[in-house]
């Protein structure tokens, strides 16, 4: 949990790590060596499922960014420019977005240091996270707004650049809820009256739960994921579980891509495997939509596409889904050849999801 005194210390640590990286390049030059930087190979083949921790982590394979080629030299040049920019940003207590960094490079004095695409600049920030062991949030780098919100019986204190403020995530917010900040480690949990957390994929379902008073009736903290959840959303969910000892449930559409949203919350993702222990909540439980729900409630559906079928078959081999429950559900879905959205529950009435479906599932799972 963060306090005012922690934030400058975190900034200084991040700045020191960046300067240390630059110093390594200088030392290599001084020793007559070709400058280089080693980074874990960020490919699916170098991702391992840590059974003990229950998350994805990088394996032992590394790639080397070396200045012994023109392309390698350009990548290291860009890294030096970004390190300089980031350490100045921290020194001035400023922040910027990943998108702004891409455009800022246009003003750099060497054309070779400028980025060709935002994917390139985003990838370099990830590289610096990995080699420095500092999160991009501590570099004061922000993604574009994710739009994710929280609604529920939770009192927090948030540290902002305009001072601290206390917010109750029901009483002090409108229907939209509390906007999750980029760096949720600046948020302190003061008090709560919650029994569990429900992470919800779609905005429409999140609005239905709030309009029906589900967060109040069931003492639930509703976290809107906004599709594939941003890092801040996954970090907040993990903190709610770890620090407040609240069970976490994940409520998504009933298709293979939504199951992967659950997987990213529970076990982490390939792209952010270096942060799995910081972002993932292995204890999270999937609440629906299940393929068995499609059959039991005769929900409106769409047929599976070829890509859906391929994704489901891939998930049968995915370590994240190697349980009897997931094998039964995925095989059933392949058999019925159907998928359904969360909103399909409305075919049984607008209150069905909050009056029947979720209470029954929560009772089955032993949460209420």
From TrEMBL:
Parts forming coiled coils: none
PROSITE patterns hit by this protein: TOPO_IIB (PS52041)
Record's catalysed reaction(s): ATP-dependent breakage, passage and rejoining of double-stranded DNA
Signal peptide, first to last residue: none
Gene Ontology terms: cellular component: chromosome
GO MF: ATP binding; DNA binding; DNA topoisomerase type II (double strand cut, ATP-hydrolyzing) activity; magnesium ion binding
Domain Spo11/DNA topoisomerase VI subunit A N-terminal stretches: 75-140
Enzyme class: isomerase
Ranges for domain Type II DNA topoisomerase VI subunit A all-beta: 144-193
Keyword terms of this UniProt record: ATP-binding, DNA-binding, Isomerase, Magnesium, Metal-binding, Nucleotide-binding, Topoisomerase
Enzyme nomenclature, EC number: 5.6.2.2
Residues bound to Mg(2+): 201, 253
Boundaries of every Topoisomerase 6 subunit A/Spo11 TOPRIM domain copy: 196-362
Any one Pfam family match given in the protein's UniProt record, by short name: TP6A_N
BP terms from Gene Ontology: DNA replication; DNA topological change
Subunit structure, as described in the record: Homodimer. Heterotetramer of two Top6A and two Top6B chains.
Descriptive protein name: Type 2 DNA topoisomerase 6 subunit A
Native source organism of the sequence: Halomarina oriensis
Lineage of origin: Archaea, Methanobacteriati, Methanobacteriota, Stenosarchaea group, Halobacteria
Underlying gene: top6A
